[in-house]
Amino acid sequence: MLTDNPGHVRFPDEDDEIVERALATYAVAAGPVQLVTYDTGTTMPARSVKLPVLKLTARFRSAQTHAVI
């Protein structure tokens, strides 16, 4: 788990905040960083800054739900 630096001010847009925090992990990650989301609103800004994204689909969500049952 990574915590925010003292004095960190969150972005007004939650999607931008998530993308910024994912990018910040590059500085400390021992390997690749990839954002995984169902949310197109998060996918778009992540891809615009060249952050690798795995965009999950409703089909995947349905398969996971059935696997849990």
Question: What's the structural blueprint in terms of helices and strands?
Answer:
Blueprint: H1 14-25, E1 35-37, H2 40-48, E2 53-55, H3 58-68
Parallel strand pairs: 1-2
What do you see in this structure?
With 69 residues, this protein is mainly alpha-helical. The protein has helices at residues 14-25, 40-48, 58-68; strands spanning 35-37, 53-55. Strands 1-2 form a two-stranded parallel sheet. Helix 1 (14-25) crosses helix 2 (40-48).
Outline = globular
Q: Please describe the biggest sheet, giving its number of strands, its sense, and whether it closes into a barrel.
A: 2 strands, parallel
Rg calc: 14 Å
Mean pLDDT: 84
| Number of β-strand runs | 2
Decide which structural class fits the backbone. Answer: mainly alpha
Helical segment tally?
A: 3
User: Percentage of helical residues?
Assistant: 40-55%
Our measurement of the CA-to-CA distance between the termini, rounded to an integer number of angstroms, reads 29 Å
Low-confidence stretches: 65-69
Strand order of the largest sheet: 1-2
